[in-house]
Amino acid sequence: MLDARGAAVPAVIHWGADLGPLTDAQLEVLADSRVRVVGPSAADAPIRLGLVPLLSDGWTGLPGLEGATLALSRVEPGISVHLEGDGLSLVVELKLDDHGVLHTRSTLTNLGTEPYALAGLATVLPLPAVAQERLDFSGVWAAEREPQRAPIQHGTWLRESRHGRGGHDDSYLTIAGTPGFGFRHGEVWALHLGWSGDKRTWIDRSAVGLGAIAAGELLAPGEVRLEQGEAYASPWAFAAWSGAGLDGLSSRFHGMFRGLPAHPTGPRPLTLNTWEAVYFEQDLPRLSELAELAAGVGVERFVLDDGWMTGRTDDRRALGDWTVDPARWPDGLGALIDRVRAAGMQFGLWVEPEMVSLDSALAREHPEWVLGSARSWRHQFVLDLANDAAREHVRDALLALLDAYPIEYLKWDMNRDQLGGSVHGQVLATYRLMDELRAAHPGLEIESCSSGGGRIDAGVLSRTQRVWPSDTNDAHDRQSIMRYTSLLVPLEYLGAHVGPAPAHTTGRSHSLSFRLATALFGHAGIEWDLSAATTEELASLRVWAHRYTEMRGLLHRGDLVRGDDLGDPVITGVVSADRSEAVFAIVCLQTPRESVRLTRRLPGLDPAREYQVSVVDVGAPPATYAGIQPAWVADGITLTGAVLGAVGLEPPLLKPDEALVVRLVAVG
Length: 668
Ligand code: DGJ
Fold this sequence. Notes:
This protein is α+β, with helices and mostly antiparallel strands. Helices cover 21% and strands 26% of the residues. It folds into three domains: 2-258, alpha-galactosidase from lactobacil brevis (Beta-galactosidase, Chain A, domain 5, Distorted Sandwich), CATH 2.70.98.60; 271-553, Aldolase class I (TIM Barrel); 560-666, Golgi alpha-mannosidase II (Immunoglobulin-like, Sandwich), CATH 2.60.40.1180. Strands 4, 5, 6, 9, 10, 12, 13, 17 and 18 form a nine-stranded antiparallel β-sheet that branches. It has an eight-stranded parallel β-sheet with strand order 27-26-25-21-20-19-29-28. It has a six-stranded antiparallel β-sheet with strand order 30-31-32-35-33-34. Helix 9 (475-485) runs parallel beside helix 10 (512-520). It is globular. The two termini are 43 Å apart. Bound molecules: (2R,3S,4R,5S)-2-(hydroxymethyl)piperidine-3,4,5-triol. Residues 275, 305-306, 350, 413, 415, 449, 451-452, 468, 471 line the site of (2R,3S,4R,5S)-2-(hydroxymethyl)piperidine-3,4,5-triol.
């Protein structure tokens, strides 16, 4: 609800629960009631948090616009708010989508004759007093999206990302809510910035009684300098409120992503990625064998990872030379692709277009395109894509590949931080490059990977169809990574691969059952040298692949629900929109503290309907402690949604790092 009366900068006076129909008179009363109070020892007039709060308004938190003090003089209400003053024009766009997500961005134009150095332009929304606790995310490589919670107190709490990408510690989604909010309860307000470069997000609570939640691009000094007539458009920010905890936020954001033009259409193909299977050891016989085995277990997309380019025998060279290595692929990739396609699979290829190795023909020919060559990272450097000639060079090399081979999918990697140059320009150029490739090859799908989950945001997801949430296929760690990545991004985008035991990243071994159950809840795949898998393991993978193809319609279109009961077992489910079916995972990550596993409630079902509950054979049974297991595990059970939601199910005696997947079908 936007108060755009008079000449003041419009202010959001309410975002949250639907207040029902209000008359104009009631609206006036409500709007007036928001800004009446002045405390002792304070400015003489009440302070209100406008769309672009500034110090000159009396707002002493972080400002919405940095770079100048505006005297704003003209207001045109509507979903585009136009502000003008001091030689600047500012347009704030506000759109509320069908899922209740507010999309907003601002465009600043310099109307004056002097250049304008923009320091920051952010989305700032008011935070009600009841929002007293925050949740956001941090992380490191192979352990992304670690939640962190704390009370909101006076002052500015600020997260900044200076990686040239979101980074593994990306704050990702900033949430504020009523104390103790959970997946199924509490009021929560959340903000996400759709931007793949440097950014900042903050929460302000001031001693004068106002609160704000904010996000914007982090600009380097002098990075955006507007000459007369030039404009800066901020990235889109996405805000959502839920009165039903974090699941309510997920429901809104998932609806938003599912409505994007770039949202993947069609069933998400079961994928095999070659990285942990062969690393750089690529040759036709070995990969043909892997492809045959993959097809044999039911894989639908075969992705050739890093190592196919000229001279790319390790990670020290050849980035930038997007030609097929004549040494390892003397006849090109055609023979492999033919086999992959003959076996009924799509072919995908790994690329890392924003990067260059010093040991590459490209760097030798164009050293001026290499950014910040003093500080290497994984022995590689950022290619200056903001330079049109560099971008066009990479674009043409990739188009040549896409023209030469039937490549349906690119795994687009980005394995280092950008530590110099203009991140702003680089991000826009990367988006442009992706758009150009997809315009030339409209069916092309792209996966956003950045050493795992270093670049997951609505900016890159407006042009990509999959993300790689983490380089770890360790199922224990993956449980948490998937749980929190899916808070924002729906499961159909989230690559989830079954690997061998022990896991390559952690060296930890988990049962095949747990690895299979974990990889089912996402866009499933395999990352495993199947020539080293046993006959039994291959048979399990076949069953699992079949289950995935049977259940992906539900997993990728339904509503994600999480249990609010604290601790083990952890409950994650997907319920179809009409609530006629559902699938749940009962996941045990710890050794039990009681001699039985605690009863868990299954949320999100239709209380009035009866559901047949049965165990899903994911390909291998979970390990259990000795004892008497609940009868429903063997026999199934029929219970109402009300009973399942309020009383719940008694899980079997699952050992730690085991999961049981159950299917629910409404009867009658
Ligand atoms: C990092 C990615 O996250 C991996 O999956 C793999 O593609 C390697 N890069 C290849 O270099």
